[in-house]
């Protein structure tokens, strides 16, 4: 295969900043192809990505077992893989159905909607502090602190611990966004993973003795009724909720505001039509998807797009590309906040569809609408935004805007 088509190119700063021309090239030249550099099939077309996400022959149980890690010289990664094991995202079929049903019970769309006024209060507080300054870094001042505060509240962990939670979770997420086998910050990741496990173990113990009205207590109650979830599963899935619950939402908010400012006519529309917010958030999710890809492992030989995938081979499904597929979305590189028929794959699809989608949508809606209402003169600062060096979790490292009326 031509190395210029390898996913390794995504780490080049220019492609990281704007991966879409590269995705379009893949869609035209090799919509499903074997990438020898990442040792996986790569799939970029909407039809194939959506079909693969709902295909039971493609499993999310894709973690290498300890022996395989050791034989590849990756024994240092074993404690990290051990945390991922038994998380919703890495189990399938009856095991997944059992755990997902239980998490669904504790994590309802109603609970997310009930959080709306709390989310509004936190957004208002965060914006109060930037108003007098006349400028803000959208990532640092809003998109970063909001989701971690909300997920901390929902899980029922003390808000004072949120800097610590953020550091652990950032370390953990950095392993998931690199094609390198051993991360540069391995020592820090190992320490974070171990500390996070001990932290949730202790919190769960406290909630067992004194339940509260929070997600961890609800999960414990479900566990005690049905005895269906072990302590280790509980800890690992709290870590998943923490990591999945804030990183991606941070990026929805910052990427969304950035895109709105890049398309001034859409920003004007957003400002004048308050009913458009829900549809605008969907378009932001499609246009700059915070989770760019996922992967699956073939349980059997199967065919995708005319290619034979062998049992045990891995397929990388790029939702970020599928969401810009011209065969599915007319004029896909145009950002249109009133786009109809916008069934993007930003939250995945089928059995593993994002558990937190309702919450993420409410957070995005409240945050972005409040910014627009309070700062109608919002505009980009001279300092250009920079993208984070993570090819999976797509987000800005910093993004400076002016919120005042001076020129
Ligand atoms: C699953 C994206 C916010 C919790 C997923 C998947 C995607 C995704 C693409 C499916 C992955 C796959 O099939 O391999 C996003 C995006 C978010 C977001 C773009 C924000 C804009 C959240 C929030 C939470 C959350 C706020 C929780 C508080 C989860 C969980 C799963 C998941 C637990 C696993 C579901 C399962 O395997 O059954 N998310 N997510 N996510 N997400 Fe989210």
Automatic annotation (TrEMBL):
CDD domains: CYP164-like. This is Cytochrome P450. It comes from Dictyobacter alpinus. Belongs to the cytochrome P450 family. Pfam families: p450. The keyword Oxidoreductase applies. Keywords: Heme, Iron, Metal-binding, Monooxygenase, Oxidoreductase. GO terms for molecular function: heme binding; iron ion binding; monooxygenase activity; oxidoreductase activity, acting on paired donors, with incorporation or reduction of molecular oxygen. InterPro entries: Cyt_P450 (IPR001128), Cyt_P450_B (IPR002397), Cyt_P450_sf (IPR036396).
């Amino acid at each position: 295969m031509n190395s210029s088509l390898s996913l390794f190119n995504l780490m080049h700063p220019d492609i990281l900043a704007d991966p879409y021309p590269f995705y379009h090239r893949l869609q035209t030249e090799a919509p499903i192809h074997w990438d020898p550099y990442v040792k996986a099939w790569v799939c970029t077309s909407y039809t194939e990505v959506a079909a693969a996400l709902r295909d039971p022959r493609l499993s999310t149980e894709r973690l290498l077992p300890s022996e395989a890690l050791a034989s590849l010289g990756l024994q240092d990664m074993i404690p990290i893989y051990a945390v991922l094991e038994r998380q919703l995202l890495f189990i399938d079929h009856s095991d997944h159905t059992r755990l997902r049903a239980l998490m669904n019970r504790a994590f309802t769309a109603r609970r997310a909607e009930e959080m709306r006024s709390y989310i509004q209060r936190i957004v208002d507080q965060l914006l109060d502090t930037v108003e007098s300054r006349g400028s803000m870094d959208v990532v640092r001042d809003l998109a970063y602190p909001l989701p971690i505060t909300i997920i901390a509240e929902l899980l029922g962990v003390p808000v004072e611990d949120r800097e610590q939670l953020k550091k652990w979770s950032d370390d953990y997420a950095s392993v998931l966004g690199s094609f390198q086998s051993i991360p540069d910050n391995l020592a820090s990741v190992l320490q974070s993973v171990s500390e996070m496990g001990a932290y949730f173990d202790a919190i769960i113990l406290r909630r067992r003795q004194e339940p509260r009205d929070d997600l961890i207590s609800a999960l414990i109650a479900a566990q005690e009724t049905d005895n269906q979830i072990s302590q280790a599963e509980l800890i690992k899935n709290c870590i998943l909720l923490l990591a999945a619950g804030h990183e991606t939402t941070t990026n929805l908010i910052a990427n969304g505001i950035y895109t709105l400012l890049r398309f001034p006519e859409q920003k004007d529309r957003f400002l004048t039509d308050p009913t458009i917010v829900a549809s605008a958030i969907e378009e932001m999710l499609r246009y700059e998807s915070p989770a760019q890809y996922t992967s699956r492992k073939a349980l059997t030989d199967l065919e995708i797009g005319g290619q034979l995938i062998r049992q045990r081979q891995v397929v990388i499904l790029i939702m970020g590309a599928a969401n810009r597929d011209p065969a599915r979305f007319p004029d896909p590189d145009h950002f249109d906040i009133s786009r109809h028929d916008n069934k993007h794959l930003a939250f995945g699809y089928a059995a593993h569809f994002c558990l937190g989608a309702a919450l993420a949508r409410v957070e995005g809606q409240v945050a972005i609408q409040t910014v627009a209402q309070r700062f109608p003169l919002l505009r980009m600062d001279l300092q250009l935004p920079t993208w984070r060096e993570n090819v999976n979790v797509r987000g800005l490292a910093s993004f400076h805007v002016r919120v005042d009326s001076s020129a």
